[in-house]
């Protein structure tokens, strides 16, 4: 198994008490699979992603990614893991406004030491002609493509996408999702995505429903046939 999350627990301090956000989450993903996490707002989806991506710590439980036990890593090793193995994509692109497309990609990714070069990633996301444009000169969909280019430069084993189409209209969303599908196919990165976008149905291998801090249901895509049959 490429990713195994077992009995993951996480609470935040809330006033005098505790807000138990994750109460023993389990999930698995095979190499190259696409997994989707569904759940209402505040159900802990982003917290779960952030812990898997090494930007937040669990209270207990285990996460193995390609044989590496994440929860046991020292801070330095966790930083290495995050930098080398994980690509993050968020709802609001997180581009630096006064840097060009190429600079946005370079600045975060240490491209000279990376697996893929600038031309390869720009071609992969269809932005060869926008290298010197600034974020404000791009549409939302194009800005998200820059963010995707930045995330794939190191050819990460795992792409974590937190509502990547949340700010985009339906047609643009479909384009971004099919781009992610192409990246999954061409580069072999596994994808774990939080989304409510029904256009994801075609590409998801597994759909996990998070409710009240637990995965209440797992749907394998081959059992569902169509996104419409998943109860969002
Ligand atoms: P979702 O992504 O499903 O909307 P989140 O993971 O962002 O949910 O948040 C789940 C719960 O954890 C919410 O109640 C939120 O207020 C709380 N929470 C998230 N991050 C923090 C934090 N850094 N400190 C305290 N509480 C947090
Ligand atoms: Mg969230």
TrEMBL record:
Superkingdom to which the source organism belongs: Bacteria
Pfam families recorded: ABC_tran
Keyword field: ATP-binding, Nucleotide-binding, Transport
GO molecular function: ATP binding
Domain ABC transporter: 3-230
Keyword Chloroplast: no
Record has Nucleotide-binding as a keyword: yes
InterPro entries per record: AAA+_ATPase, ABC_transporter-like_ATP-bd, ABC_transporter-like_CS, MacB-like_ATP-bd, P-loop_NTPase
Family: Belongs to the ABC transporter superfamily.
Stated name of the protein: ABC transporter ATP-binding protein
Naturally occurring in which organism (per UniProt): Lacrimispora defluvii
